[in-house]
Amino acid sequence: MIGRREILGGAAVLGATAWLSGAAGAQDAAGSDIDRIGATRVTPPPPGVPQLGLRHAFSVSIVFRERVRIQSLGGRVFVPTAGGEVWGERLQGRVQPYSGADYAGAHGLDASYVIEASDGALIYINNHGFMKRMDGSIAPRTPAPPRARGQVPDQSFVAPPDAQVPLRMRLTPVFDAPIGPHDWMNRTVFVGHGQRYMNPDHTIFNYYEVL
Amino acid sequence: MADFRTPDATRNLPGPVALNYSFQLIAEFSERHVSRTSRGGRVFRQLRGGRIEGPLLQGTAYAGSGGDYGLIREDGVEDVHERFMLRAANGEWLYVSHVGYRRPDGYHRLQASFDADAGGPYAWLNDAVMLVTADEADARTTYSYYQAI
Q: Which site among A34, A170, A182 would you substitute to test the B interface, given the most B Cβ atoms closer than 10 Å to its Cβ?
């Protein structure tokens, strides 16, 4: 069993001190996902291999009020963003209500929506990534009943109780910001971390700049 | 949104992301051609080969399987768009795609995504979020891959 201290010790080799202090300070009733997963061994690069650092840039909350699934080959979903907030060191604002959705399909999460920064700038985000249950369980999903002739089935679904299982959500967002104070986002690579919550159905995303 | 507030308890909770060093690709490319287009400077740089070393993947990059098709923007930053094929040490084909930024100030960072046969030893690459630092020296680019876990 590898404890948190060792995880952080291994990660410290990467030199990402800014995000490490954040991770070390994480206190949450649900627990961080690494804590819930338990053993996460981090391999540091051997000498001579260029290193990467991460720095927390901002966080985004998104609340969901409806979910639709199309029974195509990839199982496309439509989960619109009802709204949310943006806070943190490098960006503040809100998620424009119904500016987009997660259109996840066979290749995992695929979300597009618009952030309205506190100065009024509109920033487009296109987010790819995956959400994986770490305990080997599969999200319960009611199989589609055979379709009756001439009938449109109910395509809505409720959020599976992912917030209650060990979950790993990692994201690779790409942003388009107008030229101006936010245009650093157009030339910076990001990685994201997502955590699910219930009642109300929402997700908190933490975005890190890749240094 | 008046009825939704982010719970205070999570406000200062950066979710932890760890980086796991995975492997390195030392790739050889043709010279970079840039075509002036209405979108910007369209790059073509053909992959000439390469080798993969590291704890989680060993193999080669398949010469002529692709390259960089990025776009050089007005601000001088290249929107990198690379795709090519790899052969793992067991002979299995792997598809890799890179997107990210190559900046005039030397910042060259990418997000990588892979396609590997499900059920094979490299299936873990299919849902891996990979971050890459790239170092370019003439025809040779060295990519170092870190999995975000």
A: A170
Token couple for B71: 């776009």
Output the pTM of the full model.
0.84
Give, in order, the Cα–Cα distances in Å from B132 to each of A155, A192, B90. 39, 15, 24
SS3 state of residue A180: coil
Whether the Cβ atoms of residue A132 and residue A104 lie closer than 8 Å to each other: no
Is the complex ipTM more than 0.95?
no
How far apart, in whole angstroms, are the C-alpha atoms of residue A24 and residue A189?
23
* Residue A148 Cα, gap to closest chain B Cα (Å): 34
pLDDT in tens, B14-64: 678 889 999 999 999 999 999 999 999 999 999 999 999 999 999 999 999
Query: For residue A189, which residues of chain B lie inside 8 Å, CB to CB?
Result: 100-101, 109-111, 131
Do A111 and A102 form a contact (C-beta atoms < 8 A)? yes
Q: Which of B63, B85, B73, B65 is nearest to B34 (CA)?
A: B73
Task: Name the one residue in this structure whose structure tokens are 């598809």.
Answer: B95
